[in-house]
Amino acid sequence: MDAVAPGPRAKKLVLVVAILASFVSFLDGSIVNVALPAIENEFGGGLAVQQWVVDSYMLTLGAFILLAGSLSDSFGRGRVLTAGLIWFGITSLLCAVAPTASLLIVARALQGIAAALLVPSSLAIITSTFDDNERGRAIGTWTAWTGTAMIIGPLLGGGLVDLVSWRLIFGINVLPIVVTLVLMVRMPRQPRPEAATRVDILGAVLGAAGLGGLVFALIEQQRFGWVSPIVFIPLVVGIAASIAFIIWQAKSRAPMLPLSLFRARNFWVGNVATVFVYGALSFGTFVIVIYLQQVAGFAATLAGVALMPPTLVMLALSGRMGDLASRFGPRFFMSVGPIVAGLGFALMLMVAPDINYWLQLLPGLLIFGLGLSITVAPLTSAILGAIEPARAGIASAVNNAVSRVAGLVSVACAALIIGGTLDIDGYRRAMAATAIMLVAGGIISGLGIVNRRLPADAVNLPDSGG
Question: Nearest CA to 123 among 396, 382, 456, 454?
Fold first, then answer.
């Protein structure tokens, strides 16, 4: 049943709700890193606990974000968004009061499931509310405002950790959630689904088991070793479940990951590049923020401020780079951008134990931000431009999931690269590995991406890093 077309004020309200609903998810992803040393100081557990606090959230978010799109289509976008907000609020409070590291990690995993419900549903209500002529600008506005979470998160998180407690970084989520739920009462009713969409429950279970087994083995091998049954069995289960997931997606009538999308050259090449670029982004920033606090002695607030320059550069330049890529094609930008970003991390190898932020870290961070600015919008445009507009939603969801899983796995590999304790040698190995991943992403793009005429509004679509 078609809903009455909403007026300008109603559309503005829908956009505000979509921004707020997604903002809490993006904020939580950017605010936690600066609190990791404080969490480890209270609970102990070393690097493994810090990895799990990040990866338990990313694991369930990456595993269920595609399923969330199906749930939104089956049960209604408004309902799923409301459920996600309420569940995110409850799990945020559970994180805030967790008495042990184990319970915090479990609460973070539950929080990731809620986050998976928020982003697809918030984009879906924009799609269903705004017509073709308005949609690109609306999504661009959504992207700009949710992107500010990358700036606010580290600064706000550092201030709360230094002045109050790391627990408040989770408790503060309740305020925007309550405001969003109140606004949703006044929001135009979302159209109900005309027919139920089949939900790929088996695919979600296999995907979660595959990711969970692999991530558990990668993180815990530092404590138990690869030959221990505690590590070896989850590793085998994870590999088997991942293979079964791909086989099931090829056979399923309603797969959560439509493999047919990967027949488009720019789509599959772009997603392979996404693995390297976003894996590097998650891993590199994870290591830097911990190093600045635990080794260099930065306060949490200063560590948050120290990582702001790349985001500021991205906000200033990404739109312009997207416009240029729409005119000249994405191949050059996707090739050069990751390599420039990799050079930024290579420069950060200059960091000494007695760190000079202005000379040893800031130049590399600025060059990294420049490279990322050159990369992100063209990458998104190439991937979504390779798929017909009717399937842009699922194409965006797949790329979002790929970027989340890439970050999840790269952080899980931290101990393999830096060892059990982060010192100057481990930091330098991490910076070198990050630079290599970024350069690899650029080379893959240069070899595989084909320039095509892209829609003028493609650069206004949300980037895949979430």
Answer: 396
Give 174's contacts (C-beta < 8 A, 6+ positions apart).
Answer: 89, 92, 93
- CA neighbor of 162 nearest in space, from 300, 296, 290: 300
Whole-Å CA distances, 230 to 26, 48, 214, 222: 33, 15, 12, 12
Residues 422, 292 contacting (CB under 8 angstroms): no
Instruction: Tell me the C-alpha distance between 80 and 366, whole Å.
Output: 39
- Tokens read off for 326: 């729409």
> Closest Cα partner for 395 from 344, 323, 461, 312?
461
Tokens 């479940």 found at: 241
- For residue range 143-185, list pLDDT tens digits in order: 667 777 877 888 899 999 999 999 999 999 999 999 999 999 9
pLDDT of 186-237, one tens digit each? 887 766 665 556 778 899 899 989 999 999 999 999 889 999 999 999 999 9
Of the two residues 268 and 326, the one the predictor is more confident about is 268
Whole-model pTM above 0.70? yes
Contacts of residue 99, Cβ cutoff 8 Å, sequence gap at least 6: none
Q: Where are the alpha helices (DSSP H) in 295-391?
A: 300-306, 308-328, 331-347, 362-385
Tokens for 275, please give them: 């693995």
Cβ proximity of 433 and 417 under 8 Å: yes
Nearest 10 degrees: Cα torsion 156, 102, 285, 225: 170
Residue pair 59/113 in contact by the 8 Å Cβ criterion: no
Q: Are 405 and 57 in contact (CB under 8 A)?
A: no
Characterize 268-279 residue by residue with b for buried, 16 or more Cβ atoms within 10 angstroms of its Cβ, and e for exposed: bbbbbbbbbbbb
Q: What are phi and psi of 134, to 5 degrees?
A: -105, -20
pLDDT averaged over every residue in the chain: 87
- Model pLDDT, residue 464: 38
- Distance CA(53)–CA(123), nearest Å, equals 27
Question: 3-28: per-residue pLDDT in tens?
Answer: 456 788 888 999 899 889 888 888 88
Q: Amino acid identity, residue 314?
A: M
Cα 150 to its chain centre, rounded Å, is 11
Q: First CA to last CA across the chain, in angstroms?
A: 32
> What are the percentages of helix, strand and coil residues in the chain, rounded to 5?
80, 0, 20
Span 286-334, pLDDT tens digits = 999 999 999 999 999 999 999 889 988 887 887 788 778 878 889 999 9
Instruction: Provide the pLDDT for residue 454.
Output: 42
